[in-house]
């Protein structure tokens, strides 16, 4: 902009503008015209003022003089219902004011925005869209850079022109996919069942359902890639539910080719009740070992507002056994809720199935949530911790925690 | 960055900008620090002029920042100029700019313009609370009380909650006016305080007192006082309202607690239908109780003591005068362990009724149910604030009812200094006999107030009162 201005000033000085204006070139110079006319009038202002003295209200003149053209600048936009258009305008003003608002917003998003029940909900939604937009932009930029690097590399390769000989056959991803699918198919016949309970749609917001589906697809993919996959069941799955729609969005055509069992039946109708164990963080029972004969159930629910006891209630209603992961037993918990994401649970279960090693399995718990892995029961540790705390009265609890973390490092 | 003290020339601004680490946000950062330091407005103007010269335009957010500075210093003509510029330059404005404009103009003699701006805002969105408040204050400052109250009513109708500050300004500016209509409106505000269980702070209380005493021919006089535990006002000997709920309120509350707290979305979340039914028949067969005790909560009062001993002390302490006790616990208390001795449990069961819930059930829900079923005289014992249960209630009105009921019926034990005899083992915080809320009989007003300006804890009730009576 600055350089453009410099250029403009030069033009002004060489007085092209009057010439251009006379010959009807103003339209071509349209974009520049506002600044042009400004600079002109500024120049005049300056000339009639003693140098060194500032006219403090000069900016007002500038702003007002820019107006006439500003008005003519208005481009007729594609017609939208007036309420939507008004909302769009408000958003634009918010963006100008420097709030977290996306640059582009679709009509559908705009409608969702207007349906938000409160001001803070609106703000939150806009921030979410804004961040999404930023991520998208960044990804695009990175992809672009990558492509350029690739082209460069190709250029160089073609210059050197060496044909590489490799003794390995190139393993294409499709070949890998075939191998994985073969394994998944086997698991569908011989594998240990793992149930995802899809009956939580009512408990969740739309975004939570989207997140759930995303987490399930991550779990499915890591299951497929494992040495000995589970036979995944989606139980209580209703056709044309929100889950279903989201899955189709996520998988597209692959949805019908997934090597999993999808059913609208409840797990209690498919499996014997005494074999079922419902995994829930609220369970009073703690899982000791992974049982290869049992069928574990995972609730497909992302619970951002911490609704305690929802999945426990479901298990209670059906009279099923429940279990919680022994997080407190093995980990010195620091922050965060004990409910883990679905893909984390899947990783943990797969590792347990293969190795029966709690330490290895619980590596998949996010590191920020715990201070360290312990071999002694945490209860005993807590006692010493409390003792230290009472001895060091006045010193913060965090201090002790830090020390403890040192003596029980994460790895 | 430190803003300069005098207006700068374009070259000087350029120099400053180049030395700044990220020049693209230089203007914003500079204006922010000007707002912080309350720099002279001319300095900001010189920056704007420099900007306008360089870019031929000034961004909206920069204008808003400048506007903030103008409002901060009450530069009315500048505010108007900025508004004129903004109005032609942009089709509409956003809420931030409107807030500032209204705030700035309402304090000047052009306050009526703030009102027109408010109308403009209303076309697009619900105006913010600050918008309303500036306008209300402006109107009442100019003795246009009717207008102020219109705005106030409109604000309430839109679910915008007013601050105590605005309510106070009504009392401040109506002082000495003789106007029946106005008087009614101000009484309305006092009733608003009552309905929402809001307690005025000391300065607000003083405004109320002064207003009452200033009513020409009203013959009101106010006194500060403390209410006796019996609920009698020492100044006018008037008996304050009972803390008991009315029959309708009571049945309303118990119905909602059963529906929303115990059952909620799923009865299985807190208990199970079988268990709840068993509990219901258990309670119905033994009604009514005088005191319901949260056994597990009470058993943790003194951490050094065995848990069943704590409970034993509490039961003994309360089991006077043939009071019918119900202790709620969980099944694990029945298993002989280091904390729960079977003999002591047996002995207690002779003195009180016990109900043991499943270990994974929530006993608090049962506590509420048993107390409510027993009737208005029944109290309950726990140190728990029961906030999570209150949060399950659907609307603020029921939550207020709940809190009122809780104030009147909850006995909280706390461990006192070491002592052998029962009386000194626990100090009992009694339930209030009178209701702590703004109240009137027509010729008297009793208004509880907070001693300090700061917020008190929501479970605390003020002990100081303003007594106003008409002679």
Automatic annotation (TrEMBL), chain A:
<keyword id="KW-0809">Transit peptide</keyword>
<dbReference type="GO" id="GO:0032259">
    <property type="term" value="P:methylation"/>
</dbReference>
<dbReference type="GO" id="GO:0005739">
    <property type="term" value="C:mitochondrion"/>
</dbReference>
<dbReference type="GO" id="GO:0070131">
    <property type="term" value="P:positive regulation of mitochondrial translation"/>
</dbReference>
<keyword id="KW-0175">Coiled coil</keyword>
<protein>
    <recommendedName>
        <fullName>tRNA methyltransferase 10 homolog C</fullName>
        <ecNumber>2.1.1.218</ecNumber>
        <ecNumber>2.1.1.221</ecNumber>
    </recommendedName>
</protein>
<keyword id="KW-0819">tRNA processing</keyword>
<dbReference type="GO" id="GO:0160106">
    <property type="term" value="F:tRNA (adenine(9)-N1)-methyltransferase activity"/>
</dbReference>
<feature type="domain" description="SAM-dependent MTase TRM10-type">
    <location>
        <begin position="180"/>
        <end position="372"/>
    </location>
</feature>
<dbReference type="GO" id="GO:0097745">
    <property type="term" value="P:mitochondrial tRNA 5'-end processing"/>
</dbReference>
<dbReference type="GO" id="GO:0052905">
    <property type="term" value="F:tRNA (guanosine(9)-N1)-methyltransferase activity"/>
</dbReference>
<keyword id="KW-0808">Transferase</keyword>
<feature type="compositionally biased region" description="Basic and acidic residues">
    <location>
        <begin position="145"/>
        <end position="159"/>
    </location>
</feature>
<dbReference type="InterPro" id="IPR025812">
    <property type="entry name" value="Trm10_C_MTase_dom"/>
</dbReference>
<dbReference type="GO" id="GO:0000049">
    <property type="term" value="F:tRNA binding"/>
</dbReference>
<dbReference type="GO" id="GO:0005654">
    <property type="term" value="C:nucleoplasm"/>
</dbReference>
<dbReference type="InterPro" id="IPR007356">
    <property type="entry name" value="tRNA_m1G_MeTrfase_euk"/>
</dbReference>
<keyword id="KW-0489">Methyltransferase</keyword>
<feature type="region of interest" description="Disordered">
    <location>
        <begin position="137"/>
        <end position="159"/>
    </location>
</feature>
<dbReference type="InterPro" id="IPR028564">
    <property type="entry name" value="MT_TRM10-typ"/>
</dbReference>
<keyword id="KW-0949">S-adenosyl-L-methionine</keyword>
<dbReference type="InterPro" id="IPR038459">
    <property type="entry name" value="MT_TRM10-typ_sf"/>
</dbReference>
From TrEMBL, chain B:
<dbReference type="Pfam" id="PF01535">
    <property type="entry name" value="PPR"/>
</dbReference>
<protein>
    <recommendedName>
        <fullName>Mitochondrial ribonuclease P catalytic subunit</fullName>
        <ecNumber>3.1.26.5</ecNumber>
    </recommendedName>
</protein>
<keyword id="KW-0479">Metal-binding</keyword>
<dbReference type="InterPro" id="IPR011990">
    <property type="entry name" value="TPR-like_helical_dom_sf"/>
</dbReference>
<feature type="repeat" description="PPR">
    <location>
        <begin position="128"/>
        <end position="162"/>
    </location>
</feature>
<keyword id="KW-0819">tRNA processing</keyword>
<keyword id="KW-0460">Magnesium</keyword>
<keyword id="KW-0862">Zinc</keyword>
<dbReference type="GO" id="GO:0097745">
    <property type="term" value="P:mitochondrial tRNA 5'-end processing"/>
</dbReference>
<feature type="domain" description="PRORP">
    <location>
        <begin position="227"/>
        <end position="467"/>
    </location>
</feature>
<dbReference type="InterPro" id="IPR002885">
    <property type="entry name" value="PPR_rpt"/>
</dbReference>
<dbReference type="Pfam" id="PF16953">
    <property type="entry name" value="PRORP"/>
</dbReference>
<keyword id="KW-0540">Nuclease</keyword>
<dbReference type="GO" id="GO:0030678">
    <property type="term" value="C:mitochondrial ribonuclease P complex"/>
</dbReference>
<comment type="similarity">
    <text>Belongs to the PPR family. P subfamily.</text>
</comment>
<dbReference type="InterPro" id="IPR033495">
    <property type="entry name" value="MRPP3_PIN_dom"/>
</dbReference>
<dbReference type="GO" id="GO:0001682">
    <property type="term" value="P:tRNA 5'-leader removal"/>
</dbReference>
<keyword id="KW-0496">Mitochondrion</keyword>
<dbReference type="GO" id="GO:0046872">
    <property type="term" value="F:metal ion binding"/>
</dbReference>
<keyword id="KW-0809">Transit peptide</keyword>
<dbReference type="InterPro" id="IPR031595">
    <property type="entry name" value="PRORP_C"/>
</dbReference>
<dbReference type="GO" id="GO:0004526">
    <property type="term" value="F:ribonuclease P activity"/>
</dbReference>
């Amino acid at each position: 902009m600055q350089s453009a201005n410099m250029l403009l000033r030069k033009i002004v000085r060489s007085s092209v503008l009057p010439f251009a204006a006379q010959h009807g070139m103003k339209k071509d110079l349209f974009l520049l015209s506002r600044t042009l006319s400004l600079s002109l009038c500024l120049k005049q202002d300056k000339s009639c003022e003693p140098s060194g003295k500032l006219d403090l209200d000069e900016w007002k003149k500038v702003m007002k003089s820019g107006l006439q053209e500003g008005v003519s600048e208005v481009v007729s936009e594609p017609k939208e219902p007036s309420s939507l258009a008004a909302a769009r305008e408000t958003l634009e003003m918010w963006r100008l004011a420097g709030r977290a608002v996306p640059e582009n917003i679709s009509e559908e998003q705009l409608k969702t925005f207007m349906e938000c029940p409160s001001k803070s909900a609106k703000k939150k939604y806009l921030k979410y869209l804004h961040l999404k937009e930023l991520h998208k932009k960044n990804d695009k930029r990175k992809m672009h850079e990558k492509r350029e690097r690739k082209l460069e590399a190709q250029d160089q390769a073609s210059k050197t022109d060496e044909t590489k000989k490799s003794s390995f056959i190139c393993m294409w991803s499709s070949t890998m996919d075939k191998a994985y699918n073969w394994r998944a198919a086997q698991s569908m016949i011989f594998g240990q069942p793992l149930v995802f309970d899809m009956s939580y749609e009512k408990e969740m917001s739309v975004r939570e359902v989207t997140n759930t589906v995303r987490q399930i697809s991550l779990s499915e993919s890591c299951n497929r890639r494992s040495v000995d996959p589970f036979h995944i069941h989606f139980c209580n799955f209703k056709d044309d539910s929100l889950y279903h729609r989201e899955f189709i969005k996520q998988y597209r055509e692959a949805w019908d080719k997934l090597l999993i069992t999808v059913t609208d039946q409840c797990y209690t109708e498919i499996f014997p009740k005494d074999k079922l164990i419902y995994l829930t963080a609220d369970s009073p029972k703690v899982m000791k070992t992974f049982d290869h004969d049992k069928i574990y159930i995972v609730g497909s629910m992302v619970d951002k507002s911490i609704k305690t006891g929802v999945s426990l209630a479901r298990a209670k209603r059906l009279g099923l056994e429940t279990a919680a992961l022994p997080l407190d037993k093995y980990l010195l918990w620091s922050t965060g809720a004990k409910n883990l994401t679905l893909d984390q649970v899947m990783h943990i279960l797969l590792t347990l199935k293969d190795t029966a090693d709690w330490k290895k399995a619980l590596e998949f718990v996010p590191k920020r949530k715990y201070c360290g892995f312990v071999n002694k029961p945490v209860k005993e540790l807590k006692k010493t911790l409390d003792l230290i705390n009472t001895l060091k009265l006045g010193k913060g609890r965090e201090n002790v925690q830090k020390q403890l973390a040192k003596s029980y490092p994460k790895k | 960055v430190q803003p300069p003290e005098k207006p700068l020339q374009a070259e000087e601004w350029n120099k400053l900008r180049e030395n700044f680490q990220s020049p693209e946000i230089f203007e914003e950062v500079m204006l922010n620090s000007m707002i912080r330091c309350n720099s002279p407005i001319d300095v900001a103007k010189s920056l704007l002029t420099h900007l306008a010269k360089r870019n031929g335009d000034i961004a909206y957010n920069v204008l808003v920042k400048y506007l903030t500075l103008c409002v901060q210093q009450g530069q009315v003509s500048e505010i108007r100029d900025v508004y004129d510029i903004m109005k032609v330059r942009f089709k509409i404005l956003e809420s931030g700019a409107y807030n500032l404009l209204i705030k700035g103009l309402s304090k000047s003699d052009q306050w009526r313009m703030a009102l027109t701006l408010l109308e403009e805002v209303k076309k697009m969105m619900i105006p913010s609370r600050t918008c309303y408040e500036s306008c209300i204050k402006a109107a009442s400052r100019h003795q246009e009380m009717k207008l102020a109250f219109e705005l106030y009513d409109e604000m309430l109708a839109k679910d915008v909650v007013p601050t105590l500050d605005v309510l106070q300004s009504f009392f401040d500016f109506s002082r000495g006016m003789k106007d029946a209509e106005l008087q009614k409106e101000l009484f309305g505000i006092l009733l608003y305080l009552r309905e929402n269980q809001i307690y005025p702070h000391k300065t607000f209380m003083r405004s109320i007192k002064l207003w009452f005493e200033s009513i020409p021919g009203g013959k009101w006089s106010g006194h500060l006082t403390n209410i006796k535990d019996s609920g009698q006002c020492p100044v006018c000997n008037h008996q304050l309202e009972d803390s008991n709920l009315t029959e309708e309120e009571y049945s309303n509350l118990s119905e909602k607690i059963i529906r929303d707290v115990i059952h909620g979305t799923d009865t299985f979340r807190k208990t199970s239908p079988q268990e709840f039914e068993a509990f219901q028949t258990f309670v119905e067969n033994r009604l009514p109780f005088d005191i319901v005790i949260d056994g597990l909560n009470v058993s943790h009062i003194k951490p050094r003591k065995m848990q069943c001993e704590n409970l034993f002390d509490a039961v003994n302490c309360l089991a006077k005068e043939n009071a019918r006790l119900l202790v709620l616990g969980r099944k694990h208390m029945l298993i002989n362990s280091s904390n729960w001795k079977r003999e002591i449990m047996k002995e207690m069961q002779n003195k009180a009724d016990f109900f043991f819930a499943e270990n994974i059930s929530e006993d608090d829900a049962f506590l509420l149910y048993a107390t409510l079923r027993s009737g208005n005289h029944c109290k309950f014992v726990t140190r728990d604030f029961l906030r999570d249960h209150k949060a399950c209630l659907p609307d603020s009105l029921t939550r207020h009812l709940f809190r009122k009921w809780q104030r009147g019926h909850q006995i909280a034990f706390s461990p006192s200094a070491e002592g052998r005899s029962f009386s000194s083992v626990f100090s009992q915080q009694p339930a209030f006999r009178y209701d702590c809320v703004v109240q009137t009989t027509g010729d008297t007003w009793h208004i509880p107030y907070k001693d300090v300006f700061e917020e008190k804890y929501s479970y605390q009730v003020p002990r100081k009162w303003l007594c106003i009576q008409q002679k």
